[in-house]
Amino acid sequence: MVGSRQQRRGNTRQRIQDVALELFAEQGYEKTSLREIAEHLDVTKAALYYHFKTKEEILVSIFDDLMQPIDELVEWGGHQPHTLETKQEIVRRYSRLLTDAEPLFRFMHENQATVRDLRIGELFKERLRGLRAIIIDPDATLADQVRCVSAIFTLHAGMVFVMGELDGDPEEKRKAILEVAVDMVTQAHRGGPEG
Asked: Model pTM greater than 0.85?
């Protein structure tokens, strides 16, 4: 762990992203300035400009870097058979990706107006549409379509609300959230609760 932390410290671009996201989450996007980011990094504003000209560029770069694995998941899922096992695997992998990108998703939840105003909101919706297209059967009933979409949002809501609001071990909470999401996709694949 120390090795990876030192590696990230050595990468200025990633250090800028880490510090900016931390400040955006603490103070809010609008209240954080490039000057503050530079000060927290102990670099000049000119050094920061070398990598990023605006706060939006920083945020979009964070988003793009953390979304790359989701793009790869959508690509992978698009080449798999449209089976229950594929859908369940998509949900499992997406859950792991959300865990890895948790700081960004917490920021997005807490700064919804900013996300809506910046292009990352629309970019994120595109990724969700890609996931949705893979886990929803073309002939699914409306209720089953809702189950599939709800499975994805269960993972998101779980990260924000369950992880923060309910007592218990974080790993156990993640497992419970994933179990519920997988159950929804399984129910939808079978055609509802009666199967």
From this structure: no
